[in-house]
Amino acid sequence: MTAIEQVQTQPIALADDLVIGSEDVVMMVGPCAVESESQLRAVAQAMRAHGVRVLRGGAFKPRTSPYAFQGLGREGLELLRAVADEFDLLVVTEALGVEHVPLVADYADIIQIGSRNMQHFPLLWAVGELDKPVLLKRGFMSTVHEWLMAAEHIASRGNTRIILCERGIRTFEPSTRNTLDTNAIALVKATTSFPVVGDPSHATGRADLVIPAARAALAAGADGLLVEIHPNPAEARSDGEQSLALSDLPRLLDEARRIAAALGRGLA
Fold first, then answer.
1. Counting beta carbons within 10 angstroms of the beta carbon of residue 96, is it exposed (0 to 12), middle (13 to 18) or buried (19 or more)?
2. Which pLDDT tens digit goes with each residue over 63-110?
3. Residues 98-124: pLDDT tens digits?
4. DSSP of 229-258, one letter per residue?
C-alpha cells in the first residue's frame, strides 16, 4: 500500500477555524509577485473586507527569462508575513529549492511547489519532512499519474497534508496560456483523498477568462481557487495580463458562491 492509499481523512486544517477539503470552498487570492508593502496592504484590505482568508504571493519567482523580475526574496516573505498578521490572514507562497524550505517555512502557512518544480524530488522530500500543508501544482506538461506520484514523494516522507493544484497544462491550443484540465480535477477528487484547488489565472493567462475558468473548476469539484489579483494589473511586475483588479474580487466571490451553492457547498 502506498503512502497516498493510506491517507483516510480528506479535510486539511489550515487554521483552527479554516479547513480545506470539507463542504466549504477556500479562496486563495493575491498578487503573482510581492512588489511592495502598499501593494500587499491594498490586496489584504480588500480580502479582509470580503472575508477571504488566504493571501497568495510570490517572494521567489521562477521566470522563463533570467532578466524578468525574480521576486524580493526574504524581503518579500517578511512583507507577506507582516501584512498577513495585521489582517489575520494565512500565507501561501512558493519554495524554489531545498535551500529555501527552512526560510519559507518560517513565514508561510502553506508551502507551494510550483509547476516547474513538480518533479524536483529533493524539494518534494524536504517539504515531505515538514508538518505544514503543501500546495503541489501540476507540471504544465505532466500527466495526472506523474502529478500523483509527485504527491507520493511528499507523502512517503511523512507529510500527507497535501493540496493538489490543477493550474492548466500545455496543449496544441495557442489561444490561451494553458488549458484548464477539469477532467483532472474530477479524476483526482474521485480517486484520491486530497483536496484539489484550481488556478484559473495560469490556466488561461487572460484576466477576462479567469472568472469563467474559476466557475468551471468549481463545477468540476475543486475545493478551492488560487487566483491572482493586483491593485493595478497594468503595472504588475509579473503576470499582469492574467491578474484580476481589486474591483473584480466581489464578482469572483459572488460567482464562486453561486456555483458552490448549486453543488450544496459554501465559501469558507
1. buried
2. 888 888 888 999 999 999 999 999 999 999 999 999 999 999 999 999
3. 999 999 999 999 999 999 999 999 999
4. EES-GGG-SS-GGGPEEGGGHHHHHHHHHH
Three-state secondary-structure class, residue 137: strand
Q: Which of 111, 116, 115 is nearest to 133 (CA)?
A: 111
Residue 243, all three cell numbers: 491578474
* Verdict on whether the full-model pTM lies above 0.90: yes
- The residue with cell 501544482 is 137
In angstroms, the CA 152 to CA 149 distance is: 5
Domain boundaries, the chain: 24-267
The fold of 24-267 is TIM Barrel (3.20.20)
Cell 489579483, located at residue = 229
pLDDT tens-place string over residues 150-188 = 999 999 999 999 999 999 999 999 999 999 999 999 999
Longest dimension (CA), the chain: 50
Q: By three-state DSSP, how is residue 111 classified?
A: strand
